[in-house]
Structure formats: C-alpha cells, structure tokens
Design goal:
By secondary structure, the chain is an all-alpha fold. It has one domain. The chain contains 3 helices and no strands.
Length: 62
C-alpha cells in the first residue's frame, strides 16, 4: 500500500513514507499495549522495538 500510493516519489520520498507509517503503527501498538494482559503486552513491546529500530534506521539513512 505504501509503495503503490507513492509510486511516483523518487529517492528518499519512499523511505520518508515508510518511516511515517511505521511511526503510526508504533503509536497504535502503544495504545493497544495498555489494553492487553502482561504476556500479550510483552509480545507487543518486542514488535514495537523492531518497528522503532526500523524507523530509526530509515531516519538515520535519509
């Protein structure tokens, strides 16, 4: 979806878009994490860490 919406964007534009969507996903998971039990929240925390690492890598390489 991200790539098809931004097919005309060149260079770093696609990376910026991916970073944007990763940030939104991270925020959503943060809200979801508060509603889950401890075991499920632990899994969400690991997913959030991976998303954060990916977004940070994109940010650092723009």
């Amino acid at each position: 979806m991200v790539l098809s919406d931004k097919a005309q964007v060149k260079g770093n534009g696609v990376l910026v878009t991916i970073e944007h969507y990763l940030t939104i996903l991270h925020a959503y998971l943060t809200e979801l994490e508060d509603e889950l039990d401890e075991e499920q929240a632990s899994g969400i925390a690991r997913i959030k860490a991976a998303i954060n690492n990916a977004a940070q890598a994109i940010y650092n390489n723009k």
